[in-house]
Amino acid sequence: MSSLLVNTVFFLRLLLPLLIVVSLLASSGCTIFPDKDDVPENWTAARLYDEATAAYNKKSYDLAVEYFQELEKRFPFGPFAQRAQLDIGYTHFDNGEPEAALSSADRFIRLNPRHEKVDRAYYLRGLATFDDRSGKLGPVRFFDPSTRDPRTLEESFQYFSELVNKFPESQYSPDARQRMIYLRNVLADHELHVARFYIKRGAFIAAINRAKYVIEKLPQSQATAEALTILVSTYKHLGMHYLANESLAVLQLNYPDHPLSKRASSKKPKG
């Protein structure tokens, strides 16, 4: 066998695997070199939405936002744009950006007030203000009411209340109701925390106002009994015995097992 023939056979043996790989890539629609036209600027609305969703599922939130924004910019009036407007809000939320999430939810409600999923935007508004430190959707987390600005908690309560009132049958309403119960208790605890602070400073009228707010504005909270005890003690301290006795009577009527109620009942003369 001549050296030329040997070289040819050796070359073909090297070339054959490469030809097989190229053939397989061609048959599967792949290419060794990337398609210069396969860029987000040239994708369809469906492709942009799918890529954004895939990025979101991989927790690549910044990339997902970029694709959602590109979709809305290029296809502002299609159905995918509406879905992107809502999904971008939840993407911001999961990325720890509650203010951006709230802004996106407000915008979606303003632009699509009758959309079939507008209740999901109302729900997002409540979530974005519910716990503005974590940005994670999940079970209710307990926190010290003294460390939170009550204004955001009040906003969250109002947003959830609006969802429940407008869409009582929404799949998000049961969770919203549970969060409202929790927020009511947290807000009441905050008011009592401030009331106790005022008592320590001798500002008894200010403490009374805080306790009355809990009783009048947050009547179903777990803090109502303690608010009544604050009224009893502060009214007594100020010499307002009639009001102190009235507050005690309300406490005994509604919370007969409260320690103060029991002590007061034991002191009553037996007829």
Helix and strand element order: HHHHHHHHHHHH
Strand content: under 5%
Just name the CATH architecture of the domain at 40-130: Alpha Horseshoe
Give the CA-CA distance, first to last residue: 131 Å
CATH class categorisation of the domain at 40-130: Mainly Alpha
What features would you highlight for this structure?
271 residues; 70% helix; elongated; 12 helices; mainly alpha; Serine Threonine Protein Phosphatase 5, Tetratricopeptide repeat
Model description:
- The chain is elongated.
- The chain has a domain at 40-130: Tetratricopeptide repeat domain (Serine Threonine Protein Phosphatase 5, Tetratricopeptide repeat).
- It has helices at residues 3-27, 45-57, 61-74, 79-94, 98-111, 118-130, 150-166, 173-200, 204-217, 224-237, 241-254, 259-267.
- With 271 residues, the protein is mostly helical.
- The termini are far apart.
- It is 70% helix and 0% strand.
- α11 crosses α12 (259-267).
- The longest helix is centred in the C-terminal third of the chain and has 28 residues, at 173-200.
- It is built from 12 helices and no strands.
SSE arrangement:
Layout: H1 3-27, H2 45-57, H3 61-74, H4 79-94, H5 98-111, H6 118-130, H7 150-166, H8 173-200, H9 204-217, H10 224-237, H11 241-254, H12 259-267
Helix pairs in contact: 2-3, 2-4, 3-4, 4-5, 4-6, 5-6, 6-7, 7-8, 8-9, 8-10, 9-10, 10-11, 11-12
